[in-house]
Amino acid sequence: MIASSDRLGLKFCQREDGSLVNSIICNDLKAICRTCNSPIIRSTSNQLFQHVEKQCEGALFSELLERFSLIFTEVGGISLPITRDNAEFSSQIVVAAKVKYEIDVMPILALTLGGGQLIYLCLRTYDHALSARQLTSLRESFQSLIELDISNLTLPSSGLTNYLRNHVVNNTFSTCYTWLSLSPLSPLTRTIASLEAKLLAHRTVQEKSKLERIQSVLEETKSEFNVIRDNLQRAKNELYQAEGVLDKVAAYNSAEDLRKECINLEGQIKAFKEDRKLLKSKYGASTKFQLNGGIESEIIELRAIYRSGKRHIESQQKEVSSLTKQIESLNKQISDTKWIKKFLSYMDIPLIDIQSSVAKVTDAFNEIDMLNNQIKIKRDGLIDINKQIDIKSKKLKEDKDLVEYYSKEKFKLFREYQTLQSKRTADIKGID
User: Fold this and answer.
1) With contact defined as beta carbons under 8 Å apart, do 375 and 218 qualify?
2) Distance from C-alpha of 307 to C-alpha of 77, rounded to nearest angstrom
3) Where are the domains of the chain?
4) pLDDT in tens, 162-173
5) What is the average pLDDT across 52-73?
6) 4, 124 in Cβ contact below 8 A?
7) Strand runs labelled E in 76-154
């Protein structure tokens, strides 16, 4: 990982008179740093120059850009990305390359391409980038500026030029770029704007088709959800009715138990009557007064029990009759809700566990609400995509208008130049 503070031997520097020095082909032991104008030295002629004191901040950038200048001049070309996603590239001829030095700013590399177009190249490390002041100055002068990120590289101990040629220029230069500024009058800018417009139109069509497909799927899903919702609501209502039916069935079962109890009481009363007859036939009328103290009191008690039991049986018979009518109506309702059993078996819900069935129905409704929320989120995402497309379209239109404006201005200046040239020619002829 390259940092701006990494020490690097300087191959390119200058003498005190301003003449350039290449440490490989000269024997000077003292020179001047081209970035900070401070003295640099070396012990022998086969070494690279080093700062006498602390290395200046721009020394690393100066040395790397000088070597890039030699590489681009030797290669004679450069591959520049012409889309923002680095998907397409354009090979450009490099006519000249020169490092540009200014006071109090970082050096940058000026590349003259075929057709006379000029672009500037700056470097980025993990702890340093071009200053905002220098970037603003280049943008205000309508200069094209491209940034090369070298933060992931490692400085070799030797063979730096070959390392840069093999690992940057020949392989990954086009993927490490970032356009910081584009001149609106350059042909390359118009090419990039045209490709960006086509790419944006293509993406717009793709997003619209995706949106239409999603909307159709949403409509189909919505209709299916509505059917499922209706079926589940109907099943829920029928389940509640089934709970009521089961409660009435339980009441019917309790009525049957009461009926059995009444039959049992009737049997006991009949047994008491038979015992009474037996006593009468055994003791006869002569012993009536002898039994007044014990048997008569028991007979009176049995009569009272019989009367109360008979009244209880009559009331139970009335209740049993009423419950029988209710059971007949419940049987009719149960026959009407037989389809519930089929539906629950299809849904794999046992009829015995009614509470579990109701819980599953409730979970199904909760899942439908969750799916509706997901559909809403997807719709919101599509709305955001449309907004981004509108913003990019507006920005592209503004850039296009700016390019047309500067093209008109350039043509106007060219006409004025021709007029002045013609006038100057006429004046020269008049003098002659």
Assistant:
1) yes
2) 124
3) 12-183
4) 888 887 776 556
5) 88
6) no
7) 77-81, 89-100, 108-113, 118-124, 144-149
